[in-house]
Amino acid sequence: MPAQSVSKPVYLHYTQEELDRCYDQRVWAPNAAAVIARYGEESARARAALRHHADVPYGAHPAQRLDLFPPDGSGAPVHLHLHGGAWRALDKEDVSFVAPPLVASGALVVIPGFSNLPEVRLPDMVAQLREAVAWVWNHVADHGGDRDRITISGHSSGAHLAAVLLTTDWELFGLPADVLKGGFCLSGSYDLGPVMLSSRRLYIDIDAQEEEQLSPLLHVARLRCPVIVGLGEGESPEFRRQGVAFAAAVEHSGGRLARLECAGLNHFEVALELADARTPASTALEGLVHGAFREKRA
């Protein structure tokens, strides 16, 4: 009787097939298409309801345009939100839904657009977004914002990008080390090592040095502000492990951390929690934006 072949683990206890499944959130969220369609619907309603400036250029690339949602008055805290989409899909128009609760609270919301893979490489995406932060620092006062109160959030791959920005040495870019006063990372990947062992390596073109540089879990010592790490109960096992590991690394480094569990929600559903001011996620984000951070450990 011939011996049966046994698949060997490629990361932790995962076989290649299992790891690939863990980095494909649609496997774990059968309603993904319907929820993503709601992103666009809720965002269109937000843009129709709110005064805003669309497609403000912040860099030379055509994708470097941002939407700015100001409140009434001046001196408002400023919040940037980064869209997800596995680094290769969606755009700023898909996440306008985060603006209404924050604008109603008196915050100025900035949603930058940026290039997706494979039009540019992942390091180029990060470089574009560093330019977005620099633009906000230099110009947001012209729109009624307070550049000394800038916070950032992101969902999915946007959470990864937000975490990279939160762990950036901003003095190398001519900005204050603490230019970002708080971060909310929702359902992200923070260590690219296992990501690059999964099928996502087929479209993420980075070398070993870039993998290390763009893994914020390895650079939490650079954090200069409090961070909220959020997870959906229905995330894939790897996304849950990534979030727990990032939070643990922040704690171990002495950083200020709050953990947020979105009960009963999958990876795509958690993003829409930010559209509803009544949810724990939206409440936590509003507190972060307005400087009322509360440390909570689950």
* Quaternary organization: single chain
Strand content: 15-25%
Largest sheet: 8 strands, mixed
> Number of helix segments?
10
Distance between the termini: 51 Å
Element-level helix/strand string? HHEEEHEHEHEHHEHEHH
Shape: globular
The whole-number mean of residue pLDDT values reads: 96
Provide an overview of this structure.
With 298 residues, the protein is of the alpha/beta class. Helices cover 33% and strands 17% of the residues. It is built from ten helices and eight strands. Strands 1-2-4-3-5-6-7-8 form an eight-stranded mixed β-sheet, sandwiched between helices. The model has no long low-confidence stretch (mean pLDDT 96).
Characteristics of this structure?
298 residues, alpha/beta, eight-stranded mixed beta sheet, 8 strands, globular
Which SSEs are present, and which pair or pack?
Elements: H1 16-22, H2 32-49, E1 53-57, E2 65-69, E3 76-82, H3 99-104, E4 108-112, H4 122-139, E5 145-155, H5 157-166, E6 180-186, H6 192-195, H7 208-213, E7 227-232, H8 237-252, E8 257-262, H9 269-272, H10 280-289
Parallel strand pairs: 3-4, 3-5, 5-6, 6-7, 7-8
Antiparallel strand pairs: 1-2, 2-4
Short précis:
The chain has ten helices and eight strands.
